[in-house]
Design goal:
Helix content of chain B: 10-25%
CATH topology of the largest domain in chain A: MetI-like fold
CATH superfamily of the largest domain in chain B: P-loop containing nucleotide triphosphate hydrolases
Strand content of chain B: 35-45%
Distance between the termini of chain A: 24 Å
Strand order of the largest sheet of chain A: 1-2
Shape of chain B: elongated
Oligomer: heterodimer
Largest interface: A-B, 18 and 28 residues
Shape of chain A: globular
Number of helices of chain A: 25
Distance between the termini of chain B: 37 Å
Radius of gyration of chain A: 24 Å
Order of helices and strands of chain B: EEEHEEEHHHEHEHEEHHEEEEEEEEEE
Order of helices and strands of chain A: HHHHHHHHHHHHHHEEHHHHHHHHHHH
Largest sheet of chain B: 6 strands, mixed
CATH architecture of the largest domain in chain A: Orthogonal Bundle
Structural class of chain B: alpha+beta
């Protein structure tokens, strides 16, 4: 559909700004990472010895295998728990579905490493539950390592499967199912041969999101991995240098991470290219008639899953309000932990609020016009820009952070150590989301509304302000808040880019994890939870209308 | 003087000629319809007049003024969209007033004209409602009020009834026609529904693959189709292949299905293959023992495929050479088996060239 509102000048300006911005703060850093991986110690000569070194090192090969296994297991377990949940939500007559869907989506805006930390507090070596179990003589297996990481991923990332698959289950043309039954298939056979294949593309899309998020996540393995090597953590360690900083090896790991993501994308596309489904459903598929027992079973499953996902966060909040003396917990309410957390300064909190606000503004300012252009004006150029704006999703935060430091720590523009570089990283990372979300809102606004306004004598520019912007506003506000909260709980790029005065809440928590008192870390986690929950709750009605469907 | 002139207009989309050298002249106060199957270019042509689609060549004039070079918001064409395009963020009243405000009309004048426009489309008292509270038919009325209130030089309607259910569609088309006559407004109307086109139009342009097949009044389109496409697209017909035997001025003799008929036709030379259209209702069965009608042609065949449709009955007669004729009568045929079909040869329309 041709855009009438966006004139040539507007499109050119938006296209240019996007290309320049992404070129400077996304492509250049990624190229720097590639370059570092292909240059020798002097930084001048081409070499592949860095790859040879890494790939012949058992330590890193294990790390690569660990990362891939964990990401794949996380995707598989998310599908395993998420698809039945989506099915119950879409097709079974259970109550309070709106609440269930909202609770299921909640982990997406909460920082996942907080959930990991809750697991440590409850079931870790000196965890509360572990202690209780041991005191009554029940041995408890360790939750550290791959097992615990996969559990946390499944519980925090399964909404990525639930949201698209629920929509897909609802979009199924029920007459196709009826045709299968009419031809003699049992309910179970219909599910296996018709329903599930039809939602497979959505399942794969969700699984891919989980895989990529799990691969790039830094916080969860940092809390739970212990002696297991995980690529995203190792890249950070190599770069920041617990021993000596090693940009070449960090670069190689960064390239490997990007490679894994791109490979996963290609596999998904290869599978999907062989199946094209367009459903002709005009309305949501009707609910299935099931026995009361089945209904109760479905409801019980759904509530147990959302509870399991949310309980860790609630536990952290409760623990943050308890008294600690050193690492020892006393059962008694207190705000001591918060006092200690903010003892030195409130800077981490104000930093988080400030940086997240700036980043959300930036992502919206670039993302909304860009989303408008790529949605309303289809052309080869706009398709290319669209791909460019979406690709930051495939680059781990740690890797982007490393690239930005490589690109802007010397030369004409030095940004390292400033808040600017952090905000730039956040905008780049959230741009795919803001472009997608603007596009999704626009898909709900018929282009003929703009045409009607112009036809009635209102110029294109004025039409944009009088018709397009008011209609998009709800979605823009929703997108702003979601960007804000996801930036507030961002850790993987932050941990590479922050500097002393620009410590954020996530970093404060990250540092507290290594300290002695779990109370302070729990307090930091609670502050983060509040920072994300309050804005989301404020605009929940808007989000329900616009965003939950495309998160 | 023509109110709207479309002069040699063409447009291609990636090599396909969507609109191919189309010229139309719409008279002042005329209800002119573009009719054709989907993809024939009728909507593209309408959007060219509104300014939402650029021309590769040709001109469009409103009265004396050339408009294809103007931006769409300066053209003074009121458009009614297929999906209504009622602004969901504005009340009904603000929707209708939208075009007036763009024309810097303010205050009491707006209120008065909006009330009058809403009354015109039978939506009195709806000004404060929000669009989501309205039914499809009501939204359609809002869209029409919003377009006519600016007193456009031409009112453009793009399949305005296709989203309504069958009964409402018939009601609304009558209302659109009533409104058009009341306001004396020039209308360019796009539809793929031939019955709708016949019912409302002063003149119809039948389009196919970007070209105009015929421009004529509703009656002429049906009774004197210019091409086999027009004959079969409007209503149902029997398309028959024949050969021109001889010509005497306008009078021709044509051989087909083992017989020969005399009728009048301007085109074609002896020996030419021709295509003829013969409407099902022009054919009738002769009852057993019924006398021949003087001047009519008769054919013998076998009755098959009877479709009882209530008000009328359709049936087919297979001729000896395999040709199937479609017939329509008010009552189902009383006979069966071998039958005699009769028709007035003057109702045969000869179109020249095989179909």
């Amino acid at each position: 559909m041709r855009s009438l509102v966006a004139g040539n000048g507007f499109r050119l300006a938006v296209g240019t700004i996007t290309v320049v911005f992404l070129g400077l703060f996304f492509l250049l850093p990624v190229i720097k990472v590639f370059a570092a991986s292909l240059l020798d110690a002097s930084g001048r000569n081409f070499t592949i010895s860095n790859y040879a070194n890494i790939l012949s090192n058992r330590f890193f090969i294990t790390g690569l295998a660990n990362s891939l296994t964990i990401a794949a297991s996380a995707a598989a377990s998310s599908v395993l728990v998420g698809v039945p949940f989506a099915f119950c939500l879409a097709r079974l007559p259970i109550g309070a579905k709106a609440a269930l869907l909202a609770l299921a989506a909640l982990p997406l805006v909460l920082p996942s490493f907080v959930s990991a930390y809750a697991l440590v507090l409850l079931f870790g070596r000196s965890g509360i539950v572990t202690g209780m179990l041991q005191s009554i003589g029940i041995p408890f297996e360790s939750i550290y390592g791959a097992k615990g990481i996969v559990v946390v991923y499944a519980l925090t990332l399964y909404p990525y499967v639930v949201l698209p698959v629920t929509a897909a289950f609802k979009a199924i043309d029920v007459s196709v199912e009826e045709a299968a039954q009419n031809l003699g298939s049992s309910r179970a056979r219909v599910l296996r041969t018709v329903t599930l294949p039809l939602v497979l593309p959505s399942i794969l899309a969700g699984a891919l999101l989980v895989f990529i998020e799990a691969l790039e996540n830094f916080g969860v393995p940092f809390v739970l991995a212990e002696d297991q090597t995980i690529l995203s953590v190792e890249a950070y360690k190599l770069f920041v240098g617990e021993t000596t900083d090693n940009p070449a090896s960090a670069g190689v790991l960064g390239v490997l991470l990007i490679g894994c993501t791109v490979a996963a994308l290609l596999v998904q596309r290869a599978i999907l290219s062989r199946q094209h489904y367009a459903t002709g459903a005009r309305r949501s598929a009707p609910l299935l008639q099931v026995s009361p027992a089945m209904r109760r079973l479905g409801a019980a499953y759904c509530w147990m899953l959302v509870a399991a996902a949310i309980v860790p966060f609630a536990a952290v909040v409760v623990i943050s309000l308890m008294q600690f003396s050193g690492p020892v917990l006393h059962f008694g309410l207190s705000v001591d932990n918060f006092r200690q957390l903010f003892q030195r300064s409130y800077r981490p909190l104000t930093n988080t609020l400030l940086l997240a606000t700036l980043a959300a503004c930036g992502a919206m300012l670039i993302g909304v016009p860009l989303g408008y252009v790529v949605t309303r004006h289809r052309s080869r150029v706009s398709a290319l820009i669209d791909v460019m704006a979406t690709s930051p999703f495939a680059v781990a935060g740690t890797v982007l952070g490393i690239g930005l430091v490589m690109a802007y720590s010397s030369g004409f523009v030095i940004l390292t150590g400033t808040w600017v570089i952090m905000v730039l990283a956040y905008i780049v990372r959230k741009l795919p989301f803001s472009v997608r979300s603007a596009g999704a809102i626009l898909h709900q606004i018929d282009p003929s509304l703009e045409e009607a306004s112009i036809n009635l004598g209102v110029s294109p520019a004025l039409t944009f302000w009088r018709i397009t912007v008011p209609l998009m506003l709800g979605g823009i506000v929703g997108g702003f808040v979601l960007t804000f909260v996801t930036v507030a709980s961002e850790l993987s790029a932050t941990v590479v880019l922050y500097s002393g005065p620009w410590t954020t809440m996530t970093v404060a928590m990250f540092q507290a994890l290594e300290g002695t008192s779990p109370g302070i870390a729990a307090a930091a986690a609670t502050v983060l939870i509040i920072c994300t929950l309050v804005p989301v709750a404020l605009v929940y009605r808007l989000l329900r209308r616009h965003e939950l469907s495309m998160l | 003087m023509a109110a709207l002139t479309i002069d040699g207009v063409a447009r291609s989309f990636s090599g396909v000629r969507a609109v191919d050298d189309v010229s139309i002249s719409v008279g002042d106060g005329e209800f002119f319809t573009l009719l054709g199957p989907s993809g024939c270019g009728k909507t593209t042509l309408l959007r060219m007049v509104a300014g939402f689609c650029e021309l590769d060549s040709g001109r469009i004039l409103l009265g004396e003024q050339r408009i294809d070079t103007l931006p769409p918001h300066k053209r003074d064409t009121g458009m009614v969209f297929q999906n209504y395009a009622v602004f969901p963020n504005l009340t009904v009243g603000d929707n209708v007033a939208y075009g007036l405000r763009a024309r810097k009309i303010r205050g009491e004048a707006i209120r008065e004209r909006v009330a009058r426009a809403l009354k015109l489309v039978q939506l009195e008292g709806f000004a404060e409602r929000r669009p989501h509270q309205l039914s499809g038919g009501q939204l359609q009325r809002v869209a029409i009020a919003r377009a006519v209130i600016i007193e456009p030089k031409v009112l453009l309607l793009d399949e305005p009834l296709s989203n309504l259910d069958a009964k409402l569609r018939v009601e609304m088309r009558g209302e659109i026609r009533r409104l058009q006559k009341l306001l004396g407004i020039t209308v360019l109307y796009v539809t793929h529904d031939q019955e709708e086109a016949l019912a409302v139009s002063d003149r119809i342009a039948v389009m196919r693959a970007g070209r105009i097949e015929q421009i004529a009044t509703a009656r002429a389109i049906y009774e004197q189709p210019a091409t086999p496409f027009v004959a079969s697209f409007i209503g149902t017909t029997n398309l028959l292949n024949g050969r021109l035997l001889s010509r005497d001025g306008e009078l021709v003799e044509i051989a087909f299905a083992g017989t020969a008929i005399r009728t009048s036709c301007a085109r074609g030379a002896p020996g030419d293959a021709v295509v003829m259209s013969l409407r099902p209702e022009a054919l009738r069965l002769l009852a057993a023992g019924e006398a021949m009608i003087p001047g009519w042609t008769t054919l013998t065949g076998t009755l098959c495929d009877i479709e009882y449709l209530g008000a009328v009955t359709r049936f087919a007669v297979a001729l000896a050479d395999g040709t199937q004729l479609q017939l329509m009568a008010l009552a189902p045929p009383a006979t069966s088996g071998a039958v005699v079909v009769a028709f007035d040869p003057r109702r045969v329309v000869v179109m020249g060239g095989p179909s």
